[in-house]
Amino acid sequence: MTSALPPYIGPYIGRFAPSPTGPLHLGSLVAAMASYLDAKVHQGRWLVRIEDLDRDRNVAGVDQHILASLQRCGMQWDGEVTWQTLRTDLYEAALAQLGDAGAVYPCSCSRKEIHDSQLRLGQASSALVYPGTCRNGLAPGKAARAVRLKTPLRTAPSPDRVICFHDRWHGKVCQDLAAEVGDFVIRRADGFWAYQLAVVVDDGAQGVTDIVRGADLLDSTPRQLYLQALLGLPQPRYLHVPVVANADGEKLSKQTGAQAFDNGAPVAQLLESALLPAARFLGLNLQADSVEAFWRAAVPAWERLLAAKDQSSGPRSAT
User: Fold this and answer.
1) Which amino acids are annotated as binding site for Zn(2+), given as ranges?
2) pTM above 0.85, yes or no
3) 37-85 pLDDT, tens digit each
4) Residues forming the annotated binding site for L-glutamate?
5) What distance in Å separates the CA atoms of residue 191 and residue 39, rounded to the nearest whole number?
6) Which residues form the Glutamyl/glutaminyl-tRNA synthetase class Ib catalytic domain (predicted)?
7) Which residues are annotated as a binding site for ATP?
8) Short-list 27, 30, 10, 31, CA closest to 237
């Protein structure tokens, strides 16, 4: 069968990167399924990385529960599972590289101080765009809390500020880093590595060529592209699938009370209660009487869906 998807150069490497703060729910299963199917369609490798840097929120044993749930759903990863907490030397090296390039600086600002600065500048918004308070040095008596990455100033030419990329689901996406984000944190005030830095370093180290994840991370992608450019890393292709919402319209997550889809019921029940609903959410209308039959039908259905999506995606903003 001839694929209607664009040709790929080189081997495809995808990944699923859950946080062990709770068992997988339907929303995380949707992201896992999409990334798994995309790797299978392109005859690539599918990696699993446990993003456990936020140690205060990790729940003991959940990482193993996540891995067991993936296997019970018929999703087997390639190679060894990795844990971010075992890779901190890579983040230290990346920070040193950015420091040598003069691209980072210490910041003493709290969220309240950033909000107050926005009010004074008449720029208050829910996004908490950083106004650059510490970019030229800490105020007297202030101690460093976090480390921020310099983004192009608002006075820089527009092409230097605006980062655009092609998302395989949404089409062309653009974001003005200075106006919509500002200088962003790469090491948090609590000492933990920020998601933006860690995910870029990990994807680069693992040779990830394609990132398939939820659309709640769409507006993070320009920051990651910017970091990749500064660190001299290859830029993967991106595909952001819709996120599952609860009855109140909030993204389904552990913070909004999402329930685990895998409570130890027989695998046949997982097919009806989790796999088929997740596929329907992605737009795959499938019928299957076993997990094996589900995946045999889901892979070509995903290819057909993406071929149609490639014809219909248009430009949009990241925010």
Assistant:
1) 107, 109, 130, 134
2) yes
3) 999 999 999 999 999 999 889 999 999 999 999 999 999 999 999 999 9
4) 15-19, 51, 195, 213
5) 34
6) 15-261
7) 254
8) 10
